Amino acid sequence: MKTRLPDHGPLETPKFWRTLEERVETLDAQEAAHHEFLPSAGPGAFDDVHGLPVQDGFSRRDFFGLVGAAAAVAATVACDRKGQGTVVPYTKRPVEVTPGVANYYASATNEGRRVYPVLVKTREGRPIHITGNDEHPGVKGKTSPRTLADVLRLYDPDRLRAPKANGRTLGWTEAEGQLQAALKSAKASGKAVLLVSGAVVSPSRKALLADLKAALPTLEHLAYEPVAGDGAEEAAKASFGQSVDVQPRLDKAKVILSLGADFLSGEDPESLGAWGAQRRLKSAKDNINRLWVLEGPLTLTGTNADQRVPVVPSRLAAVAFALAKELAAKGVSLPAGTDLSAIPAQSEVPAKAWSNLVKDLQHAGRNAVVLCGAQMPAEAHQAAHLLNAMLGSEAVSVRAAEPLATVKDLETATKGMGEGRYAAAIFWDVNPAYTFPKASAWKEALAKVPFRAWIGQVEDETAAQCQLLLPENHWLESWGDFSTASAAVLQQPTIGTLYDTKQGEDVLLDAAKALGAATADNYHAYLQARWQKSLPLGTSFAQALHDGLVKGEDKAASPAFKGASVAAAAKKAADSKPQGLELVLFPGFATHDGRHANNSWLQETPDPISKMTWDNPVAVSVQDAQAMGIQEGDYVSLSLDGTTLRLPAILQPGQAKGVIALALGYGRTTGGVAKGVGVDAFPLLGLDPASAHVRKGAKLAKAGGKKELSRTQSHHRMEGRDIVRSLTMDEFEHHPQGHHHAPEIVSLYEDQKFPDHKWGMVIDLAACTGCSACVVACQSENNVPVVGPEQVARGREMHWIRIDRYYEGELENPKVVHQPMLCQHCDNAPCENVCPVNATNHSPEGLNQMAYNRCVGTRYCGNNCPYKVRRFNFLEYTAYKTEPETLANNPEVTVRPRGVMEKCSFCVQRINDVKIRAKGDGRAILDGEITTACMAGCPSDAIVFGDLKDPKSKVSQLVTASRAYRVLEELGAKPAITYLADLKNPAAGE
Amino acid sequence: MADVTRKPIRQPIVDRATALLAGPFLLGQRALGLVFQPDKSPGDPPPEPAALRISIKPPEHAIKRRG
User: Fold this and answer.
1) Which CATH number fits domain A728-743+758-984: 3.10.129.10, 3.30.70.20, 3.30.70.100, 3.40.50.10490?
2) pTM here?
């Protein structure tokens, strides 16, 4: 690499940078800045002088020969009548379905203990798009990126379609007969039966398990969530004497301290909504919260921090306890029995920041909250519990929850299986053969259990160890209920079962009946009977299903904090010293614990921080990488406790020195998409529940070789122009436009006339956290194809909206700004002028629109777009979709073929849908009635869409805000998207 | 300015014209021959796209919000 470091030359360090090469201004980076596309994105090399394709060894004669042959072959092939399909009308139309009209069903799902109330859009009976349930008082119509993408899992071609026993397909009567016979035999012999499932957050599922336990007293149930955080569970038991569910209430928070907590990652739409509400400031006098983050690896929450300090995770607890001690010294009362005498003064946080942090927390009092990351050690969680108790925080809800099993419990079960304790084992929606750190020991012990049954959707590593496989419904085909703090939520099917599957509850209900329990015929009846007893007066079950929820008071208890539990944790924290490199194992953005690894939408969505797709390289701090001579993509060997993994490395600015981070959920051995993607990091998980995810003593060494990373952070460059703006609150108050001045635009074009509407968008960078929910929502709505890791590495990803992540400042602890970038729908669009066939043109409502069947694929428009938001379908990406996957397509959006340019349409199909409905009702379109997919998916409401012709519309008012600017306004393209500058709220003098 | 990259003409113009016409003709004939070969077995047919056998059923007992 041609390198010129800043201290070796006169070049000025750029203010904002996306890659390390840009930051250190290497000559490679300077050269690359002139290539807006990766050179590999094009079909071949081009002549640097004339811009024409280089034609090495290809003569005119060859050309004519090929043209002749091609003409002859084309003429021959054209005679074949291929691709004939038949359109079959409904012979008997279901009453629910009106062709061309979407139906919406309220339903819900969960991921571990987190519940997602949703609204599901179906077309002709097919669920095609998911958003949050707008009736739910907590999520307010928002949901997580993984929930948005879960509609694709319904159509996963790898789903098991009928029961199987020892490889033989069989019917449900025989399959359930085998299971029931095994359970009856176990009951008769008095031997134990092991049932391992995910977290139980459903009251009816809990009741069903109790019924089963009553019918089969030897049943042992473990609810295991491998990435929920064993440390959090251990700490809850110590601090509250029971398992708890900690939910932030950020609407009440003025000061937030995160100890490695990633509550802005997109998993928690409720927190994101409350965060966004306090960040969308109109003036500097509006209330804004302040976010302090102490963490090892850079998290999405860390990138949104007002003040962030990199701290090694094993030292977080000591720092937090020192904070409690300091607050106590300043007069904040400690809970009775709390002993912090073992805690010395901290040295991790610089003195000035420390003093500001203490002041902030003390001043905010009950409006301050301390949140701890699920993967952090138990002592750090206990310190957070203590601090919240001291502050009397109202910005966090602690509710009693059903206990979760830890790795220790799984280890005990393994021992029991090996000793022949169990007559049967049932695995329901869990995959311990993959997620348990000692997987080979687990498999060996499991083989000694005489009867092994598996209930799930896609045959996984655990299914391979079981004799009886029972295919389960997707949640979009299932009944259920969930408990949340603000409402009980109901789950209902949105489609009949696609295959010969059953939901797990029905299997267990049938088993309970076979064992003598007097219970309902099926789980739907069971659920209905339970709810009809407890619904509030005047509410019917049908109404509850229509709404998707039953509002009411939270019945879960709020346990009290036990001060006496702190002394032991404080001593352990004080004694904890870093040893070697510290490895943090965190759930993958795309994969979580591996359950989403077979979802190609998620695999291809760039990680919000590293911008990696289709892989989980180990993230190394820049300082450590320089010391070890590791460069981006170098293969390294990561060793810990006798386990060694060979995997590529990436350099992560902002990561604490001495910390390495690795995502879980990759390296699966089953699944058409998941198999072989990334490296399985579960073998590195610790067996000590107090610190299973933070491991000391890891060793890293260069292993030779380099991997080409499918990483998008350097794609679609905009030549280092002034694109992103970030202000501090002080600057916002005194210089709301920063040091930027709106350029005077002189245009040769006449101003366009928009007779009825002029659609526009405003994106508030202060509210955008970079969670990427908009990327997934757009993919689902607009049939955006998946291209795979090799094509991503060539810069050919197809997302219509991308999130550009910019660093600002020092490598060790940069500030970060996230900027969603999509077609700007320019009035003087540079792409429109250069299209030789007028495939891209302007609508009378200000939309830059594409006529796909007119596009001949010159790609001139992509070259001339200053925002790099046009995507070219180089190969037939959509043809890779197999039959069930195509059912996820939105019929209102054209599926684009090869050789065609495509891009954001401002969800024109949604605009037209509302226009048609408004016309039918004989009224005007209401402000806010049209929502683009990205806007509807954005959990922090950072995106606003509307009519710029309507002076009262929200979007019209926002475009004149003091923070407003347009990207590359000086080019005179007149984009229809306005950005509001990012805001940071650091403490005074920082 | 002379085109220095241009190859010198070594063949008579008639030869070149013949090649230009005959090349595509022969290749086209070959291509046709691949498709229409009555005395030979046609080989494995290209895989047909799998027929859609998944029947879509509406959910039973569910209550829709709107539509």
Assistant:
1) 3.30.70.20
2) 0.90
